[in-house]
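User: Quick sanity check before I run a bigger batch. Here is a single chain. Can you write out its predicted 3D structure?
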Amino acid sequence: RKIPIPVNFNTIDIVFQDDKARIFKENLLYEFGPNKKVPVLDLMKSSNIYVKEFAIWVYEKIFVNYTAKQWGKKPHEIDPSVTARVPIYTGYDNRYFHDKYQFIPIDGYTSVFKKLLSNSLIEVKLNTDFRELIKIDFDKKEIYLNGIKFDGIFIFTGMIDELCNYVYGELPYRTLDFEFKTFDVNFFQEAAIVNYPNDFNYTRITEFKHIHPSYTEKTTVAFEYPRKYKVGDIPYYPYFTDEAKNIYLKYREFIKDFNQIILVGRLAEYRYYDMDDAIKRSLEVFNVDINI
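Assistant: Done. Predicted structure follows.
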């Protein structure tokens, strides 16, 4: 059956019989308090037998196989921050995010980026490797743009290992294959995203019509198939292992005194940013007041 994820008290009521559901909820509240987000690996460490029993169920039914598909690893083999992104919620709230303000651009993200790039001072080059335009001398700490020394700020949002010519080797990433399908129905599924942790090769199906309403009798969905990244793919996710973090730290050390270069974004900083986090990080880097 389909259940709310992240797992919360509604999920427990759906899956377990009344007595068992009550015991699980009471013990979760006793140990963690109401309306708290608890990573599954923290649940697994509990000495409370009922919390532990519930944690094992969540771990085996939701996390193990999904993590294997998404990352090619078991949950305990990757950085805890990854599994912490989908915590258990000790309350009755089915939402993935619990932020006070939640919204998307009224005309969609395409319109946002068109406006951002419409400035006359911005030149957009598609299907162009940045190394065709930019040459960097890391020894002399000099940047050349189209063969001419460039003294301005170089903001880089791509892969830091590629920027540094792979001097410490390639950082690992995960990529995705998307399969788009259009159906002659008003809606294909009940929610914007439905995860498939245990069955099929895809991890989830996204139906965009739930996110941004479209007045059409058809609907388009995307099936996501994660796999290992290879050069030439789109690197969607940094790969959080101890080895990968150590390689990244070497690159940060390699570039730290190059004051002309500003690294920002998921790939350049080798961090798992969501859209709101990426925007917030950009504002922080450039000292923009973000107080609301």
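The longest helix spans residues 49-71.

User: Great, the batch can go ahead then.
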